[in-house]
């Protein structure tokens, strides 16, 4: 007959670890839901002061209460696993649910759309930092090579967690709307704050590359696309043949950039006000009649065109943007002006700021003369890099050491 260990009976293991994590999760959710007070992340210098105070408390816990069972358990593997999984759960939720600033947030269950400034995030972060900190204090001495590698790995993770949490309040974000041939030097935050940058931005050109438009058959009575066709529209390419409803449609010519010539035809053009155009051959399978003609997406210079056959329009949809970018000239005092290209996921770094391409005038689409940039400054970014380097050094050593052990075991077996 075996005696099954009950919860909270020593030695504690994963059962207690996940129970504590679930308790922190429940307390955080209840505080989010039933209190109107949000946890406001402190900014410099209060975040570093808070961090130093917190480290002092951890050292006090280690050297004064280090022999208590609970403090010893907090530096165990079950505690570390539960803390990491709990924090990852919160981070994953932040990725799945669009996050908003507190002042402009819409009501949401348990404030899951403002997690960065929630009690749940703060409690999970403190739990993770506590477990990692006590684990580091336990393994930092004696100074063996293995312990040093372990300390580097967990120290890097601690730095990353700290900068992702308390230090994230120092990250500054400002939007910069600028029109072609305009020069600006101010940015605007979502809270309405204004900042003057140590540089000026002159927008030389804003451009959008489009996907080919899609081919659609529209009901002339309702001006709508049949629901069964809506999710299966084909991108227009030269030579495309497709059956839609009772029509067989073949694309004989396709111009991704064209201008209208007369009332019935289109010619290729690189003009910035051009639009997409295609010449079609349409066979009505009900009666075998063949129709030909041009369709286009239109532009500021000419209207969109379509082919009408009985109660149906054969047309192209509004082209969707594939990528957009800005060509800018950066002007700084006592420096020669430099030209850069800023695209989505291709920012540039200027005077401690990163400039990102984030938007444009969506009503104008391809013909937008407005570019919306975002300037981001993160003074803690060097510490993020330090944390990543420490984490990689510690992990690399453990992999290398583990591989050495495997090689020795193989050599022993061969002997």
| Straight-line N-to-C gap | 44 Å
Structural class: alpha+beta
Radius of gyration: 31 Å
Helix content: 25-40%
Q: Give the rounded overall mean pLDDT.
A: 88
Task: Give the H and E element order.
Answer: HHHHHHEEEEEHEEEEEEEEEEEEEH
Number of domains: 3
- Helical run tally: 8
The largest pleated sheet is described as: 5 strands, antiparallel
Number of strands: 18
| Beta fraction | 25-35%
Task: Choose one word for the global shape.
Answer: elongated
The oligomerization state is single chain
Low-confidence stretches: 405-415
Structure commentary:
The protein is an alpha+beta fold. It has 3 domains: 14-171 and 382-414, no CATH class; 172-209 and 323-377, no CATH class; 212-319, no CATH class. The protein is built from 8 helices and 18 strands. It has helices at 14-34, 46-64, 69-74, 77-96, 119-139, 145-164, 227-230, 381-414, and strands at residues 172-179, 183-188, 194-210, 214-219, 224-225, 234-235, 241-244, 247-261, 265-268, 275-284, 290-296, 307-309, 312-316, 321-331, 338-343, 348-350, 353-360, 370-377. Strands 4, 5, 6, 12 and 13 form a 5-stranded antiparallel β-sheet that branches. Helix 1 packs parallel to helix 4. It starts with 13 loop residues before the first helix and ends with a helix. Mean pLDDT is 88; it is low at 405-415.
């Amino acid at each position: 007959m075996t005696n099954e260990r009950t919860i909270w009976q020593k030695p504690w293991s994963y059962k207690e670890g996940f129970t504590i994590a679930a308790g922190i999760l429940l307390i955080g959710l209840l505080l989010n839901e039933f209190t109107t007070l949000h946890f406001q992340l402190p900014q410099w210098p209060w975040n570093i002061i808070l961090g130093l105070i917190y480290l002092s408390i951890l050292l006090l816990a280690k050297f004064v209460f280090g022999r208590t069972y609970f403090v010893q358990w907090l530096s165990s593997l079950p505690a570390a696993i539960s803390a990491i999984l709990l924090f990852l759960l919160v981070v994953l939720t932040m990725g799945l649910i669009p996050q908003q600033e507190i002042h402009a947030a819409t009501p949401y269950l348990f404030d899951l759309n403002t997690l960065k400034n929630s009690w749940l995030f703060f409690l999970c972060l403190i739990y993770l930092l506590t477990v990692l900190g006590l684990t580091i204090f336990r393994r930092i001495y004696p100074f063996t090579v293995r312990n040093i590698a372990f300390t580097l790995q967990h120290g890097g993770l601690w730095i990353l967690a700290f900068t992702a949490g308390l230090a994230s309040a120092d990250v500054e974000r400002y939007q910069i709307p600028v029109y072609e041939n305009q020069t600006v030097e101010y940015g605007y935050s979502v809270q309405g704050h204004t900042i003057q940058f140590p540089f000026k931005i002159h927008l030389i050109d804003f451009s959008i590359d489009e996907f080919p438009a899609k081919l659609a058959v529209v009901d002339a009575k309702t001006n709508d696309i049949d629901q069964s066709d809506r999710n299966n529209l084909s991108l227009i390419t030269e030579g495309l043949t497709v059956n839609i409803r009772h029509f067989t449609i073949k694309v004989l010519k396709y111009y991704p950039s064209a201008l209208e010539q007369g009332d019935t035809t289109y010619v290729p053009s690189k003009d910035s006000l051009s639009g997409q155009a295609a010449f079609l051959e349409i066979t009505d399978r009900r009666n075998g009649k063949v129709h030909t003609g041009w369709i286009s997406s239109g532009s500021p210079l000419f209207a969109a065109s379509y082919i009408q056959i009985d109660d149906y329009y054969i047309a192209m949809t509004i082209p969707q943007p594939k990528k957009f970018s800005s060509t800018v000239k950066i002007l700084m005092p006592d420096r020669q002006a430099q030209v850069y290209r800023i695209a989505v996921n291709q920012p540039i770094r200027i005077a401690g700021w990163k400039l990102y391409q984030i938007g444009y005038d969506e009503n104008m689409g391809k013909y937008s003369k407005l570019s919306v940039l975002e300037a981001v400054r993160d003074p803690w970014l060097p510490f993020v890099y330090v944390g990543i380097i420490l984490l990689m050094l510690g992990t690399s050593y453990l992999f290398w050491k583990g591989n050495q052990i495997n090689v020795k075991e193989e050599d022993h077996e061969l002997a």
